[in-house]
Structures are given as structure tokens and as C-alpha cells.
Amino acid sequence: MGARDTIRTAARHVVPPAGLTRALAVQAMVYAVGNGLFQAGSAVFFTRALGLSAAQVGLGLSIAAGVSLLGTVPLGGLTDRYGPQRVWVLGLVLEAALFATYPFVGGFAGFLTVVVALAAVHAATGVAVQVYSINALPPAERVTAMAYQRSSLNVGFGLGAVISGLVLAADTIAAYRAMVWFIAAVFLVTSLFVRRLPRLPQVTRPAEPMSRLAVLRDRPFMAVSVLSGLLTAHQTLYLTVMPLWILTHTDAPKAVIAGLVLLNTVLIVLLQVRASRGADSAPGAARASRRGALLIALFCLVLPVSGATRGALTVVVLVAAATLLIVAELIESAGAWGLTATLPPAAQRGAYVGAFRLGSQLQYLIAPAGLTALGVTTGGWGWYPTAAIFTLVGLAIVPAVARAERTPRLGEVASPEDRVTLVP
């Protein structure tokens, strides 16, 4: 194969095919420009432009995270009632309006009001985005389309981070206000883009719809949600625990941390679509989740080696460990998409997708403190029980998914594999 053929093959796994898959990927990239810009510059904006203390910012964001956790399932039910596209568009408009108000926030109470409202809106919108992708595409294309979206998201996050660098370099109140107003404009543009996507007919619902919290009684499904959610701890490991380990237990220069973040972004953009192969069925998604779990466990065994090496060898070990974790993230993400695309019933997909996301949000509550305590504060030996935990999760998720497949979903009136017909 020549160089030109190699480039074309690689491009096919980065540039989505024409049609709805490409439209969804472009939307994801545009949205991520605003999201990435705010993630990179938010800490400075809150303290510099709003005059908040670090403690106030941390408390407000923690309360917002709690609201998001409690609201994910009931807010996900809005998608079933009003349709994913309508909820998605309304959510983007509300996000734009809330960001536009940031420069006028006065004190902690105003800040808390905005971040809590944003958390609730984002919880509802996140479910709507996923449900629309599932409903609008045939089963064989759903996971691949989500992979293209994630690849595009990372491109958008990178562009947003570059723009944030310009804002932080200017370091003026006017620049920070312009930043949030630009983000608001990006979200408004995204809402117009989403509004022009093909419309979906309302999925047939049961004559007596279940309550929005009833999905929590579906124990086999919730078991899968928790197990899959625990595996999303790879994000905490990569962005929080591994950098702390590098700073406190290795002789690697601090610049290595930035290099590893860049490596993560590049590999996700290049490899996410390839890594999603075979995860478009429930058994395939379960196996992908298991492979991801075992790779996370292997990362936990390789990383502590860097605490005993010196110089260039330390960097080599860190890159090897980071690569293992990135591949685990690629495969596990595809497995999670496959599970959300195949297990929930069509009529209650919003509630079920919201419940599935509950597992990852629970992880965010326990993983930062728990994994830091095990991996960093123990001096290194804690990585071995951590590896054992992920191994056990990986071994448990395949039979858990098989059990969930055998169990009828609550309120199921149609096969979750049904494809709805687009309305032009």
C-alpha cells in the first residue's frame, strides 16, 4: 500500500461519511469549541472576572455535580415525553442564555444559581443527544457514529483550548467577558444546526407510561450501569491521578504531563472509530468493556514502575502506561455506547440512557478521592488492589450484560433495535 492509500485509509477513520453521521460529528465539533474553551479558562474566569475564592468555586461546582447526579434520571425522562431533538435544541438555547448572564453574576449566590442551572440543563441535553443518535440511525451505524462524534469532540476541545490560551494571555476582564459571550454564541449556532437535523417521529409509548424513576427498579440494567460507570474512572486516572503520581513519585519533568494530554487527544482523534468495531451488539459491547477493564488493570501495574526508574526510562514507562490507558478508554467508550444503543427499550430510551449515565456520575463522586488515596498516598502499593478491582469489574460485566439481555425492560413495547423513519 502506497503512502497515498495509507493517508486515504486513515482519513476514512477520522472524517465521517457524508449524511447524518457527518452532520452529527460537525455539530459535536462546533459545540466542543465552546465547551473546550470554557473548561480551559473557567477556573481563571471564576476567580479573576467574578472575584470568587477557590473554595467558593469548588463548593459551587460540587453542588452542581450533585444536582446533575440527582437529576439525570428524571431529566432524561423529558426526552421520552417531548422528543430528543426538541429537548436538545431547548437545552442549547438555555445554555447560551445562562452563559450570557455570567458577566452579570454578583457574588456566590448568583454564581451558584447559574452553575446549578447549567448542570441541570446539561444533564437533560446529554441524554437527548445520545437518544437522538440512537433513534435516527440503524443499529449497525450507531456505535460508529458515536465514535466519529467523540473524535470530532476532541478536535473541538483542542480548538477551544487554543482560543483559551489567547484569552488567558490577554488576562483582562473584557477578554473574559468576551469569552463567555463567544461561548454563548457558539451554543446558539449549535442549536440552529441541531434544529435543521432530520426530524424524528415520536416513538410509540405505553398507554400507561412508567414513572421517571421506575427504571431504577430494573436491577439487571442498573447493575450494568454501575459496572460500566466504574470503568469510566479511566478519565480520573488519566487527568488527575496519573499527573499527581508523576509529580510526587517520579523524576519526570512537569512538561511530560502536558505531552501526555496531547497524546490522549491525538490518539482519540485517530483511533476512536477503529476501536469501536464489534461493539454494535450487546455481547460485543460487553466484551469491549471487559477488554477495556483489563487494560486499565494492566495500566495500574505498569505505571508504578515509573517510580523506580530514572531519566529517559521514566518517560518511556510513562508513555507506555499512558498508551495502555488511552487504548482502554477507546475500547471502553465503544462498549458503553453499544450498551446504551442496545439494552434500553425504544419507548423509554431517555429514562434508561439517563439511568445508564448515573453509573458514570457515581464514579465521579468516589473515584477522585478513592483512586488518589490508593494510587498516590500509599506510596505505590495501592496500585495492585486497584488493578484487582478493575479486573473483577471486567470479569463481572459480561455475565451482567447477558443477564440484562435475558430480562425484559420495564415499559418495553418495541425492540430496542427498531429504527425510526426520518421525517424530512
Structure at a glance:
With 424 residues, the protein is mainly α.
Global structural class: mainly alpha
Percent strand: under 5%
* Gap from first CA to last CA: 41 Å
Tally of DSSP helical segments = 14
Report the uncertain regions.
414-424
Succession of helices and strands? HHHHHHHHHHHHHH
- Mean pLDDT over all positions: 87
CATH superfamily name of the largest domain? MFS general substrate transporter like domains
Query: The biggest beta sheet, please?
Result: none
Q: Name the shape in a single word.
A: globular
**From the coordinates shown, what is the CATH architecture of the largest domain?**
Up-down Bundle
Reading off the top of the CATH hierarchy, the class of the largest domain is best stated as Mainly Alpha
Number of DSSP E strands:
0
Total separate domains: 2
Rg, please? 21 Å
CATH topology of the largest domain: the name is Growth Hormone, Chain: A
Kindly state the percentage of residues in helix.
over 70%
Structure description:
- The chain is mostly helical and 424 residues long.
- The protein folds into 2 domains: 180 residues, MFS general substrate transporter like domains (Growth Hormone, Chain: A, Up-down Bundle); 193 residues, MFS general substrate transporter like domains (Growth Hormone, Chain: A).
- It contains 14 helices and no strands.
- Helix 4 packs antiparallel against helix 7 and helix 5 crosses helix 13.
- The two termini are 41 Å apart.
- The C terminus is likely disordered.
